[in-house]
Amino acid sequence: MRRVSIFGATGSIGQNTIDLIARDPQSYDVVALTGGRNVAQLARDAIRLNADVAVTCFDDELPSLRDALAGSGVEAAAGEAAMHDAATRPADWVMSAIVGAAGLAPGLRALEQGATLALANKESLVTAGPLLMQTARDHGGRVLPVDSEHSAIFQGLVGEDINAVERIIITASGGAFRDWPMDDLAKATVEQASTHPNWNMGQRITIDSASMFNKALEVIETKEFFGVLPNQIEVVVHPESMIHALVGFHDGALMAHVGAPDMRHAIGYALHWPDRKPLPVERLDLTKIGQFTFRAPDPDRYPALPLAWRVMEEGGLSGAIFNAAKERALDLFIDRQIGFLDMARVVERTMDAISPRQGLQNDIPDLDTIRDADKEARRVASQMIEQLG
Ligand code: NAD
Ligand code: MG
Question: Which ligand approaches the C-alpha of residue 208 most closely?
Fold first, then answer.
């Protein structure tokens, strides 16, 4: 039996992970499930999967979680220290599906135990890619990509020499506003930005898809995970979301990964890796689909996207600053304090205001240094509201 934990179990990725595990309960010994305010769901799943412990990140939710778990034998815990403890419980496979930079520390703890970390939390790699990968190497842990594009690239590289890779193309749906008139974008509402044309995901990543901040994060994630150069990474808009990524080799061949827009493809691949097992996903009928289309991303429509290359060139703490400023700008948009297009402005100006080398003593910043940069970027991003005008 494999010991598994799921961080962010109540979210979109967490629920898809639970769906796969619950289909084959005999194969898994569930250690920890973590979540936020949705304690009823957390408790239901913890009982159903017979987890050792269920943890909510909010201290004030402990009484409700305790009530919901009463008599079940599943331990209830809450708060930051409990999240930390859950991440240090020995597990063979850990799903990292918390949203935002909050997912970084639990992922690091799991890697320090030598676990295989199935990484949906792309913010970890953007914020602290070198630290995360080094922690895995130092402790015999392993990181497996769960973002659909990165799982696709990973699968395209099986049996290949990374030195034969010329380029990596990641696809983008174009998000909610890909066909909107440009003049309407500034007025786009939170509700409009929270609807994705193809994927069913958490609200934050859905809005990030509309702005293409999500794709910017994924470009950086590609560099950090596969170690390719910034100029080897390309983004193409592919409205059908069926081709998830393509790997281009130096003989000119392109290897594409094609599948329905269902995250259980990528979660299942990481769960069963290095094997490939049957998955309950739709089988595509290509004759019904008829055609796949592609277009170049328009930088005027998606000003967030070019920022990824700036982050990769600057290095150091730039990823941490970029991600934190993006998270803060997204909070401000969701709180209706800034407009849709202001998010990219806030992030760019925050990057202008903070040097990515500030406070950087060595090439791999440690967690405290990264946290300081993250905090500072959120503070500076909050102040940018006044400058927008
Ligand atoms: P979601 O909002 O649906 O779920 C987030 C989970 O994290 C919930 O369980 C929530 O309780 C928990 N959480 C939120 N804030 C927390 C905090 N501060 N501390 C501890 N736990 C916290 O998000 P999602 O769409 O499932 O995305 C999760 C991660 O996976 C994100 O990093 C996202 O970018 C990535 N991802 C998601 C998809 C997708 O299809 N949803 C695809 C690729 C990558
Ligand atoms: Mg993705």
Answer: 1
